[in-house]
Task: structure prediction
Amino acid sequence: MNTESKLITVIGATGIQGGSVIAAALKSGDWRIRGVTRNVNSDASKALTSKGVEMVTADWNDESTLVKAFETSSLKHFVWSTVPDHVKISGGKHSIPHFEGKHKVDEFIRQDKDLLSKTIFLWVGYYGTDIVLPMIVPNLLKTCGKYVQLFPVSDDTPITTVGDPKVNTDIYALAIFSQPQLTIGRIVLAQSETRKTREIINMWSQISGKPADYVQVPLNHYDNLWPKWGREIGLTLQFWETARERSWTADEPVLTKEDLNISGLIGMKEIFSSLE
Result:
């Protein structure tokens, strides 16, 4: 690695998105990489250290640790992983806690012209790999012999997915890093495709060879089955059901894979084919 390389500091280095960004930076060889995590002694952290990543400890809830983690760092580009303004898009009809937290940061950035001029807002779509999560995976209903997916939305709800986040966030990160003249100050939507809920379960059934069906249930029932997780995911799904094609839009043009000349993404078909 070039010892004169610029420093890139990645928060959440051992997570899905952070790990993918680090993979992109390692692949390019153009940066010194600092990974920020809560536990530098974890196996995931040690694996990154073995690849030449400088791992440091910090906690989002302790400002002093963050200050230390960013020592010797300047700010040229800030890639902020966020989501659309769901309240504005839905006319105030929807409230999603984790969306609201991110939007507060968006507003802070946009009020600081200098910071805004260095920021890329990265919207990462639904993880296609989440199909294995308990509240999303189709479950076998023995009495009918089918695998049933329960969701609190209609079966024509559009789902915009990043596909495989471990692979595709890497691809988008490389595109962002290599085209700063295009991406700085802009919104980038990381997605592989948009499919409707019924289409997704039908694809899963066809690829797995398992008979499946889709059943809409009330949000409170969904949340009772999978407390807290069910509500957060359910609220997100209901926003997408209402907003539909406006779900991933803003008052400004949003950069897409076509704008960034991105190809080679791993989509839902490939994800389902890789499952056991």
In short: The chain has twelve helices and 13 strands. The mean pLDDT is 94. Residues 229-243 form the longest helix (15 residues).
